[in-house]
Design brief:
Blueprint lengths: L2 H8 L13 H12 L10 E6 L2 H15 L11 E7 L7 H18 L3 E5 L2 H4 L3 H9 L7 E9 L21
Helix pairs in contact: 1-4, 2-4
The structure holds flavin mononucleotide (FMN).
Flavin mononucleotide (FMN) binds next to strand 3.
Length: 174
């Protein structure tokens, strides 16, 4: 099996992280993979915001927890969050493009033996006044739509196993 197929098949979500930050070299490689995801008509309507600042991570965590209605940390204490934002004014496919970016980010992290997880509720976050404030601070337009966060870090604990794939996942017509 090629390394790429092995990575794509074995990537699993990680929900427990060490405090140590990932190195910039790995971060750069992950971002390269995200930026090179396909986008409809090649428009590249998304932006990836790299959040490693503890105060900003805390603000994302607080917003996400409020939306989720939980007291636990929805970002699992990961040291890096890559926020994918879509500009729907640039392309009607911006949301789909953003999902593909998130897939690439998680797979690239797995290829580098780093843990990652897609964290939901980004859409709601950037509809909140607190989210709009972040967009303004980041110098980004307030109409951007949050697609998701890819948290990244060193996994803490045993490698998670895959849940079984459902029986009817694939249908052959041939
Ligand atoms: C669109 C999407 C949203 C997700 N949101 C969350 C989330 O908010 N929190 C979380 O812990 N996992 C989240 N996940 C991870 C899934 O729960 C995980 O992929 C699923 O349980 C299967 O695990 P695996 O990716 O290791 O096979 C999300 C995954 C996707 C694709």
């Amino acid at each position: 099996m090629s390394e790429t197929i092995r990575t794509l098949t074995n990537r699993r979500i990680v929900r427990k992280y060490k405090k140590a930050q990932i190195c910039d070299e790995d971060l750069h490689l992950i971002l390269q993979s995200g930026m090179n995801a396909a986008s409809a008509k090649g428009i590249q309507p998304c932006t990836i915001v790299v959040v490693q600042n503890p105060d900003t991570l805390g603000r994302l965590t607080a917003m996400n927890a409020k939306i989720k209605g939980t007291d636990t940390d929805p970002l699992y204490g990961a040291p890096t969050a890559l926020v994918v934002l879509a500009d729907m004014e640039k392309s009607p496919n911006a949301w789909s493009d953003g999902c593909l970016i998130l897939g690439n980010l998680m797979n690239a992290a797995a290829a580098l033996h780093l843990g990652s997880c897609w964290i939901n509720r980004a859409r709601e976050e950037f509809e909140l006044p607190e989210g709009k404030a972040l967009l303004r601070e980041w110098g980004l337009p307030e109409h951007l739509v949050g697609v998701g966060h890819c948290i990244v870090g060193y996994g803490d604990g045993p490698e998670p196993a895959a849940s079984p794939r459902k029986d009817n996942f694939i249908k052959f017509i041939r």
